[in-house]
Amino acid sequence: MPPFWPPSRLAAKRERHRPVRLPVSVAFLLPAPDGMKTVRKLLLAQLAGGLLVAAVAGFWRGAGPAGSALAGALIGVVPNAFLAARLLSPRAGASAGSLLRAGWIGAVGQLAISALLFAAAFLALRPLFPAWLFAGFIAGQLAWPLALATRPGRGPD
Question: How many C-beta neighbours within 10 Å does residue 99 have?
Fold first, then answer.
């Protein structure tokens, strides 16, 4: 037999377990109009960092290393764009559970896409210059904190 719950305790228990509605977009916890613009700028900064390494590789070593560096930059941008698309979808912010589900699917998808793109690069790129491939990837990944640190109006607290 289930335990007896007085009506006042039962109402309090139901109140504690209500789903939470999020009033803002989840893009870096910024207000909704600013979120998509910030994500777009971050992805473009990541691509620009990789393109800079590809340009250096092209001028210094030629087309082969430049292609490897460009592939590395794209290996960084595409999975991050997938994650951003999952988190910024209108359904993701409907409830806390849907946001958590979108985050998990986005993170797992991001890892899977990265692994598949790296495997494709190692199998398909001929000649492959692995140092330049990873340099393009790392330059793109380092663009995220630099872009976040240099946003206008976001000075030190």
Answer: 17
